[in-house]
Amino acid sequence: MTIPVKRICDALKVRAEHQRDEIAHDDTRRFMTYAEWDREADEIGGGLAAAGLKPGDRVFLAISNNRAVEHAIAVFAVFRAGGIACPINTRLSPKEITEYAALCSPRFALTDAPELLENLDLDGCWHVDTPPRNIATLPDQASLDPNADAEILGTSGTTGKIKGVVVSHPDLMKGVTGTNMDRSRSTLHALPFSGSGGNLGVLMLPARGGATTYTQPKFDPAGFLELVKAKKPDLVYLVPSMLRLVLDQPNAADYDFEGVKYLMTGTAPLPHDSVVRALALWPHVKMRNSYGMSEGGIGISTTTREQVLKPGCVGKMPEHMQLRDEDGNLITEVGVSGEIYGYQKHSRRYWNDEEATRDSFREGWTKTGDLGFVDADGDLIMSGRSKELIIRGGYNITPLEIETVLHQHPAVQNAAVVGIDHEILGEDIAAAITLRAGTTATVEELGAFCKEHLADNKVPRTIVIFDELPHNPNGKVLKKELKEPLQKAATERKRAA
Fold first, then answer.
1. If you ran DSSP here, which 8-state letter would residue 307 be given?
2. What total of structural domains would you count in the chain?
3. I want to staple 266 with a disulfide (CB 3.0 to 4.6 A). Which of 94, 279, 290, 422 is the partner?
4. Using CA of residue 111, residue 20, residue 192, residue 81, what is the dihedral sign?
């Protein structure tokens, strides 16, 4: 019987028929075949429907990477039930999770960390070890809208207000197809499944491309090298900060990357020395430097050795991308920098945020906030960021979010957060503080306060208390003037450690 493939979960049904006993996902703790994935998605999808899930209902998926197999099952179970999957990072603070829940209004949740969700008003919350199962109530898949919303991916953007990027089923079908550009049969990674790269590029890839996904539950460079040796994946995916840690292993040269054809990296600028070192260690491996964002429509990657060796290069400028000046005019001249725009056939939007949608999505085009130029070879070269977004170890972090927390401290008068250079993470977080008159606070106290209210990866590692902060005539803090003293303070702190 021919199975009509309209959604990515239909593609899984086809894989289960033709690759029944082949491994789809392996998180080192557990592996599952395509047949098991398909069956469990049906059983749990039916269980969610029996619990009352209706098409369009949102389901929180707060599942850590050490349960990657269960996460893959949960996402496709939600699809089979007609719901909208909302994967969230389990490193978020309870406050952040509450804010995201207020935005998405989930009815149900599947999780391996129920304590994170205990304050949410849900109609049902199940541990991934004991999900609802009732295949008899699984909806007729042909009755579900193939153009419906499939996922909401959380992003902080640049305003500090959490936003949800809506991804449709057609987006997934198109996006995942484009991800497996090299037709790799197996991929090893340690990316979070709550982000676009881990979600689109890795979690869904087996269903559409027939490739096995190996997930390292928690990134460890030495362990990652051992997994490369043991699993011999075709493709290895590392964000730049992870790659640097792998390259810094004293015995990295002892691993020949046998079987690895491609090394993919992305989410942050790729340091040129990392490229040179990686190619020297593993000359047979083809490196790929990719560029994209959760908002979609801008997927691009290098394809040649010459491109990946060119600093800042992310590949040939494709037809679905443009450069525009501050007034929105198209830039066609070689070497002229502008903001990057990406086009997508199925326009995306932010969930329940019309204003942000209007600001970022215009007639199918997405404003990225990133700057670049096209060189004489037709390659797109990243030249900076127009946004204040800090990318720390592959995670996008907005300064305003951290500043908002710091301003809640009773001794803080003003706070300004900036990104500073970090040799491993790419960028790190630094905060400049002024105190209220008559109050006192130590750097240690301010750091502890941040740890109480923020996820660990958002806590400033460098905090400096100033007598006053530089301002322009309109009263806006001049953050550019803060970067140098904060960078110096970070260097001194490292030396003293």
1. H
2. 2
3. 290
4. negative
Tokens found for residue 208: 């559409």
Domain for residue 218, yes or no?
yes
Query: End of a domain among 366, 383, 400?
Result: 383
Rounded Cα distance, 378 and 177, in Å? 25
CATH of the domain at 62: 3.40.50.12780
Q: Are 463 and 431 in contact (CB under 8 A)?
A: yes
Pairing of β 338-343 and β 235-237? unpaired
286-291/300-301 β-pairing: antiparallel
User: Terminal CA-to-CA distance of the chain, rounded, Å?
Assistant: 66
Within a 10 A sphere around the Cβ of 456, how many other Cβ atoms? 9
Instruction: Give the span between the Cα atoms of 169 and 31, in whole angstroms.
Output: 26
Q: What sign for the dihedral angle of Cα 69, 73, 78, 82?
A: positive
- The DSSP code sequence of 451-487 is HHHS-GGGS-SEEEE-S---B-TTS-B-THHHHHHHH
Give the residue from 232, 273, 283, 230 showing the smallest Cα distance to 253.
Answer: 283
Q: In tens digits, what is the pLDDT along the chain, a chain of 497 residues?
A: 566 789 999 999 999 999 999 999 999 999 999 999 999 999 999 999 999 999 999 999 999 988 999 999 999 999 999 999 999 988 887 888 898 999 999 999 999 999 999 999 999 999 999 999 999 999 999 999 999 999 998 876 434 567 898 999 988 887 665 444 455 689 999 888 887 778 877 888 899 888 899 999 988 999 999 999 999 999 999 988 788 889 888 899 999 999 999 999 887 667 777 898 899 999 999 999 988 776 665 678 888 999 999 988 999 998 889 999 988 899 999 999 889 998 877 667 889 888 888 888 888 888 888 888 999 999 999 876 666 778 888 887 878 789 888 988 989 888 999 999 998 999 999 999 999 878 999 999 999 999 999 999 999 999 999 998 887 544 467 888 999 999 999 999 888 87
- Which residues are bridge partners to 263 per DSSP? 236, 287
Residues 431 and 293 in one domain: no
Q: What is the pTM of this model?
A: 0.78
Backbone φ and ψ for 113, nearest 5 degrees, come out as -135, 70
- End-of-domain residue from the set 362, 383, 404: 383
For residue 257, give the 3-state DSSP assignment: coil
Cα 152 from Cα 334, distance rounded (Å): 37
**């401290």: which residue's tokens?**
409
Residue 483's closest CA among 395, 399, 424? Answer: 399
Do 159 and 253 sit in the same domain of this protein? yes
Helix (H, G, I), strand (E, B) or coil at 204: coil
Instruction: Tell which residue, 169, 5, 177, has the closest CA to residue 82.
Output: 169
Q: What is the DSSP letter of 260?
A: -
